[in-house]
Specification:
With 159 residues, the protein is mainly beta. The chain folds into 2 domains: 63 residues, no CATH class; 83 residues, OB fold (Dihydrolipoamide Acetyltransferase, E2P) (Beta Barrel), CATH 2.40.50.100. It has 1 helix and 11 strands. The strands form 3 sheets. Strands 4-11-9-6 form a 4-stranded antiparallel β-sheet, with no helix packed on it. The chain has a 4-stranded antiparallel β-sheet with strand order 8-7-5-10. It is elongated.
Length: 159
């Protein structure tokens, strides 16, 4: 496993929000340790010799497991809808700035490639484009709320 800078930034943000003091990930050719002391976040990444031993499973906290039930499908039939999910960890914004209208609202027709929201991660504002054409049926996240990787954001009735 080797992580790119974006994945590392997302991991730092997740660790900072989770309240965990330290996270270590160690693979045979890659090791990263993130320590938070409420003020700055320190990151050290090294490439150790291939004889590294894996950490015991209990040493890696899994706060993401707590949020899993929240994304369970509702009782109404949503199988005909396409779910647009967050491609990253960050903060969800429905509009480009507080004084501008939302990118999309329930009932809006969208096309593939249309910007539908912004996910801000590490002070970078990432425009999220729709991968499908159709009609917005439901917006699943409130404006300015934190989102997880792969968290459902929109339900779309495909054309």
């Amino acid at each position: 496993m080797s992580m790119d800078i974006k994945q590392i930034q997302d991991l730092i943000k997740f660790v900072a929000k989770s309240g965990v003091n330290e996270v270590s990930i160690e693979e045979k050719d890659f090791k990263i340790t993130i320590k938070t002391n409420q003020e700055p976040t320190y990151v050290t990444a090294t490439v150790p010799a291939p004889v590294a031993t894996p950490l015991p499973q209990a040493a890696v906290p899994a706060p993401a497991a707590e949020t899993a039930p929240a994304t369970a499908p509702k009782t109404d039939d949503t199988s005909k809808y396409v779910t647009i999910k967050s491609p990253m960890i960050g903060t969800f914004y429905r509009s480009p700035s507080p004084d501008k209208p939302a990118f999309v609202n329930v009932g809006d027709e969208i096309t593939a490639g249309k910007v539908i929201c912004i996910v801000e991660a590490m002070k970078l504002f990432n425009e999220i484009e729709s991968e499908v054409s159709g009609k917005i049926v439901k917006i699943l996240v409130d404006d300015a709320q934190p989102v997880e990787y792969d968290q459902p954001l929109f339900l779309v009735e495909p054309k």
